[in-house]
Amino acid sequence: GQQVMQIPQYQHVQEGEDFTTYCNSSTTLSNIQWYKQRPGGHPVFLIQLVKSGEVKKQKRLTFQFGEAKKNSSLHITATQTTDVGTYFCAPNQAGTALIFGKGTTLSVSS
Amino acid sequence: DTAVSQTPKYLVTQMGNDKSIKCEQNLGHDTMYWYKQDSKKFLKIMFSYNNKELIINETVPNRFSPKSPDKAHLNLHINSLELGDSAVYFCASSQDPTEQFFGPGTRLTVL
User: Fold this and answer.
1) Min Cα–Cα distance to chain B from A2, Å
2) Distance from A45 to chain B by nearest Cα, in Å?
3) What is the mean pLDDT of chain B?
4) For B67-95, b where at least 16 C-beta lie within 10 A, e where not — what string?
5) DSSP for residue B96
6) Are B93 and B2 in contact (CB under 8 A)?
7) Contact in structure between A9 and A88 (CB atoms under 8 Å)
8) Among A29, A77, B39, B74, which is least packed by CB within 10 angstroms?
9) What is the rounded distance in angstroms from the CA atom of residue B93 to the CA atom of residue B106?
10) Is A59 touching B (CB cutoff 8 A)?
11) Residue A94's closest chain B neighbor by CA?
12) Residue B1: pLDDT above 70?
C-alpha cells in the first residue's frame, strides 16, 4: 500500500527564519494536497499540486511537486507567529482516498 | 454560514456507553468522510461516503457504524466505547477530487 513520510515531525524556528517540510511517497501520485491545522483547530486546505515539477506560491509559502510525482515540499519564507500550526501533506493516488502524512508541527518564537 | 458542522463539540462519557456524533454539510458536496485524530495528531481516515453509499471503510472496529440519511449528513455511532476511542473526530466533505472541507471536530473523552 501507499506509504507517506513527512519530515520533520517538529520544527522550532525564530520569527523571520525560513521553514521547510517534506513529504515523500513510495508510489507515484496523481496529486498532492497540503493542509494547515492551527492549534485547537481543524485542517484547512492550502493547495493542490497536480503536474510534475509544479511550483505554486501563496505569499510567503512555496509549494513544489517533484518531477517524479513522488515527493513534495512546503517552504515558508520569513516565518511569522501566525504560521504556527501543523502542516499536513495529503497525497492522492489514482482511485484511492487521500492519505494524510503525520504532519510537521511548526512553532515560532518571537 | 458554517460549511461543515459537527455536534457535539465535546463529548465526555464512560467506558461501555454508546454515543453518536452528527455531521452536516451545506456545500452540496457528494462525498463525506470521518477521520480520527489521536493525541499525536495523526489524522486517519475511517469512512468515506459518496451520495449516501459507503465507498471507504478502513480498518476500524465494527463498534463504529456510520450512517448517511442523505448526502448532506453523515453521522457516526460508536458502541461500547473504550478508552482507546478517546480522540478528536473530524467530519469532512468534498466534491472529489478537490479540497476537503473539515468540520470543527468533536473531542471525545472516554473515562
Assistant:
1) 14
2) 6
3) 92
4) ebeebbbbbbebeebeeebbbbbbbbbbe
5) T
6) no
7) no
8) B39
9) 16
10) no
11) B97
12) no
Cell triple for A53? 515539477
Peptide bond into B69 cis (omega under 30): no
Could you tell me the CA-to-CA distances from A42 to A53, B80, B103 in Å, in that order? 29, 27, 7
Q: What is the pLDDT along chain A (110 residues), one digit of tens a residue?
A: 557 899 999 999 999 999 999 999 988 988 999 999 999 999 999 999 999 999 999 999 999 999 999 999 999 999 999 999 999 999 887 666 778 889 999 999 99
C-alpha cell read off for B5:
458542522
Residue A31 buriedness (CB in 10 A; 0-12 / 13-18 / 19+):
buried
B78 CB-near residues (< 8 Å, 6+ apart): B18, B19, B20, B21, B63, B64, B65, B85, B108
Here the cell at position B53 is 453509499
- Which single residue is written with the C-alpha cell 524556528? A13
Cβ contact B75:B22 at 8 Å: yes
CA A94 to chain centre: 19
Cell numbers for B92: 469532512
Does residue A33 belong to the interface with chain B, where contact is any CB pair within 8 Å?
Answer: yes
Residue A3 in grid coordinates: 506509504
Which amino acid, one-letter code, is at A11? Answer: Q
